[in-house]
Specification:
single chain, alpha/beta, Heat Shock Protein 90, Rossmann fold, 15 helices, 17 strands
Length: about 550
């Protein structure tokens, strides 16, 4: 009997290894190995939980008796139970035999999986929980003797998942490295071109200034001059972008009036696009504002319009649509890729040749272009840059197309209302601020109180020690480094000697941390350098509390 059982295990193991060698799809691989485990253990239900940072990120199951009718419902139930089971798994680090008995901690799970006998096997890698396998059957409990063999197959399953994810990560890193090298090369070329282009633009601005003085102020002439000036300003801003292309830069964001941007886009389309293209403007008034860089958003929208024009070979219909969109519980299912809230939704639609399904998958890839190479156009960076701009503005872009009927790009940008302020969440946390710069201390205290915290203010390290040793408890200490009589580090050291433990933020204008302060530094949870913005300090506090 034992020999037959070992033979069965060997057979399933060999077949599982064969799957590992030839299968690259994670879903199919898990399905195959799970099938081998269930066949060996005579289980009717099999569920694989994928764990990341102690949370279930996905699950995959096999149901031979059609007991599971609603995957979402089962997933929700498992997640609820897992919070409780996780504590048991972390403590015991061994398989759990579940049953419908009242005193069994997996009793609830046996009910909704419709299996009175369960086996829950956790698999750890480097002390980290990686996957959990749940097996179920109705006729008999899982015996200790068979669990060891099932564990071996389960470990093979987790190895397979880990192996595929590692390969995927390596591929992404390699692609990213190649892309970084390409962008660096383009950046050097673009920067050199931008310097020359700046000189040309200077001449254009000078000539434009003279033209305004010498040209009769007729309506048509002034309209054309205004258009030249607007386009030249845009070109100047884009030149600045070229000078820093491929280099990380901090760009100042501001409220962007979307209707104003569309007005400028309309002017360019009406005055520069071929008359054979019928332009339909369906931009609604009073669009939400957007937080971002207006030049970049303009560039992204213009790229989409120019792309549409070129897709139609100078003849067809171009439709630009824009409206406000509010996503809530009622319509959230229509936009699974977006969070709830307010958005500006816009689309650019053409009646061109359309895009094949194969090319749609690559449409936002750098250097990919469907334009003919012999024409000298089509760098493949237009849509790639557009995609990057939309992502930088926390937006979303997708494309719909049908060969022979045209293409439609959909863009969603989150709205921004500077007048709206989040109501601070009520809190009972007490923060002490120790700083001899009274103006800065009082200002920070006022800001923290407006965020819902209770604040105690002291002017020195000695005063902080005195207050804290008089039975006053705090949740966090913000202390300045440079104070008279006792500096911040000396105060922190004394607090530890007195076993007063709570999160500590050290604020300082200049501090070289070396071995001299090694003991004191151990008690510091965050260092915030002056001058700091309130949001920076608030983020540090929220992280520690």
């Amino acid at each position: 009997m034992i020999e037959q059982e070992n033979l069965n295990l060997l057979t399933e193991f060999q077949e599982a290894l064969s799957l590992l060698a030839k299968e690259k799809s994670l879903t199919i691989l898990v399905e195959g190995i799970l099938s081998k485990i269930m066949h060996y253990s005579l289980s009717k239900i099999g569920v694989v939980l994928f764990i990341e940072e102690d949370n279930i990120v996905d699950l995959q199951y096999s149901d031979l008796t059609n007991s599971i009718k609603n995957k979402e419902e089962i997933e929700s139930e498992i997640k609820k139970d897992f919070l409780f089971l996780f504590k048991w798994i972390e403590t015991n680090k061994k398989p759990l035999i579940g049953s419908a008995d009242k005193n069994n901690i997996a009793q609830n799970m046996t009910r909704y999986l419709n299996s009175p006998n369960l086996l829950i096997i956790p698999v750890f890698f480097d002390e980290r929980l990686f996957t959990v396998l749940i097996l179920g059957r109705r006729d008999k409990k899982y015996k200790i003797s068979e669990i060891k063999n099932i564990e071996q197959l389960t470990f093979l399953l987790s190895y397979a998942v880990n192996n595929i994810k590692t390969k995927e990560l390596n591929a992404v890193l390699q692609t990213g490295m190649l892309q970084s090298q390409k962008l660096e090369t383009i950046g050097k070329l673009a920067s050199g071109m931008a310097h020359d282009f700046s000189n040309i633009l200077s001449s254009i601005f000078g000539s434009l200034n003279l033209l305004k003085k010498k040209t009769a102020p007729t309506e048509d002439a002034m309209r054309l001059l205004e258009n030249i000036e607007n386009c030249s300003v845009r070109a100047k801003d884009l030149t600045k972008s070229l000078l820093t292309f491929g280099k990380p830069t901090v760009k100042k964001q501001e409220s962007v009036g979307m209707n104003n941007l569309f007005e400028e886009i309309n002017k360019v389309i009406n005055q520069t696009f071929p008359k054979e293209i019928n332009f339909i403007n369906l931009v609604k008034p009073e669009l939400y504002t957007v937080l971002g860089v207006s030049t970049e958003i303009y560039q992204a929208l213009l790229n989409l319009c120019v792309n549409a024009k070129e897709a139609m070979d100078g003849k067809g219909e171009l439709t630009v649509f824009a409206d406000n969109l509010f996503i809530d519980d009622m319509n959230n299912y229509l936009y699974p890729f977006l969070n709830k809230g307010e958005y500006v939704y816009l689309s650019v639609k053409d009646t061109g040749t359309g895009i094949t399904e194969e090319n749609i998958r690559k449409i936002f890839n750098p250097y990919f272009s469907t334009k003919k190479k012999e024409t000298g156009s089509g760098s493949g960076l237009g849509l790639y840059v557009t995609y990057g701009i939309i992502k930088e503005h926390n937006g979303f872009i997708n494309v719909e197309s049908e060969v022979g009927k045209g293409t439609k790009f959909n863009v969603y940008l989150p709205s921004y209302d500077p007048m709206k302020k989040e109501t601070p969440k009520p809190t009972e946390k007490i923060i002490m601020i120790a700083d001899d710069e009274i103006m800065l201390r009082d200002l920070l205290a006022e800001l923290l109180e407006s965020a819902g915290y209770s604040v105690i203010k002291v002017i020195s390290g000695k005063e902080a020690l005195k207050v804290l040793t008089e039975e006053i408890k705090i949740d966090l200490l913000i202390i300045d480094y440079n104070m008279p009589e006792m500096n911040g580090l000396e105060c922190i050291k004394r607090l530890h000697e007195l076993n007063l433990n709570f999160p500590v933020i050290l604020s300082t204008g200049s501090l070289t941390l070396n071995n001299k302060y090694e003991d004191e530094i151990k008690g510091i949870h965050k260092i915030v350098y002056k001058p700091y913005e309130f949001e920076q300090m608030l983020a540090a506090i929220q992280e520690l509390l």
